[in-house]
Design goal:
The chain is α/β, with parallel strands linked by helices. It contains ten helices and ten strands. Strand 1 and strand 2 form a beta hairpin. The protein is globular. The N terminus is likely disordered.
């Protein structure tokens, strides 16, 4: 685990329940500044709930979520959110707004002048390799890959310190997904931001993440590099999870 001094986000004994379901069970986690942490695990393990807690979409029932050492509260949440960019599953674009307006929404709420917004959009379009003319289309007129690029632009428009990605490529076909994974990896390395990525795909997590956090039933089973999960599993479930994905993940090559 990273030291507290290098952690930009920390969770201490965080719990969250939905009715009879315990989505998070006494989770302790520190997320290192400038690193990409990939949350992985089977459906319902709590990884997306954890991500939503980080940006304050849901509140913990117990424990503490802190950003830069400061606890997230209703009083500081709006200010903290400006320091985080968030891409939800399937992008979450507003269908009645053009791509350009979708991208600039956070900047408009932040009071940016039109000239500043336009300059930022042009910069981000170049970063994600999106043709400027595409920005005048509506989401229904865009391909799945284009919509994901627009969603990433929106998350980056305020130049946040932290980028939260909830299965950003889950609905895409394999070829487009692979291309966007390459592009996202390059963007992450170029920007040097702290990234928290949710994925059910171990190959994707290993490719994009500096550190993997495997979850099960609301708890963290093991955190570290893929090779540690392969050669020094903390629990039989770790081995079972890795073996279940061997068809899509060249474990021996990645872990060697």
């Amino acid at each position: 685990m990273q030291s507290a001094q290098s952690a930009i986000i920390s969770l201490a004994q965080v719990t969250k329940t939905f009715g009879a379901l315990k989505a998070l069970d006494a989770v302790d986690l520190e997320l290192a500044a400038g690193a990409t942490t990939a949350l992985i695990g089977p459906s319902g393990c709590g990884k997306s709930t954890l991500l939503r807690l980080l940006i304050g979409l849901v509140k913990p029932d117990g424990g503490r979520v802190a950003f830069d050492g400061e606890s997230l509260t209703s009083a500081n949440l709006a200010a903290m959110r400006k320091r985080m960019g968030y891409v939800i599953q399937e992008g979450g674009l507003f269908p009645h707004l053009t791509a350009r307006v979708n991208v600039t929404l956070p900047a408009r709420y932040a009071g940016w002048a039109a000239e500043r917004r336009d300059a930022r959009v042009a910069e981000l379009a170049e970063l994600v390799h999106l043709a400027p003319a595409t920005l005048d289309r509506y989401p229904a007129q865009l391909s799945g890959g284009q919509r994901q690029r627009v969603s990433l632009m929106r998350a980056l428009v305020l130049d946040p310190e932290v980028l939260l990605l909830d299965e950003p490529f889950g609905a895409l076909d394999p070829m487009i997904r692979a291309r966007l994974q390459d592009e996202l990896r390059n963007i992450i390395r170029r920007l040097g931001k702290t990234v928290v990525l949710v994925s059910h795909d171990l190959a994707e997590a290993a490719y994009l993440g500096d550190r993997l956090v495997l979850m099960r039933k609301g708890r963290i089973v093991q955190a570290g590099k893929l090779k540690e999960m392969v050669h020094a599993p903390a629990d039989p479930f770790v081995t079972k999870f890795v073996r279940a994905q061997r068809r899509t993940l060249k474990v021996d090559k990645e872990a060697g």
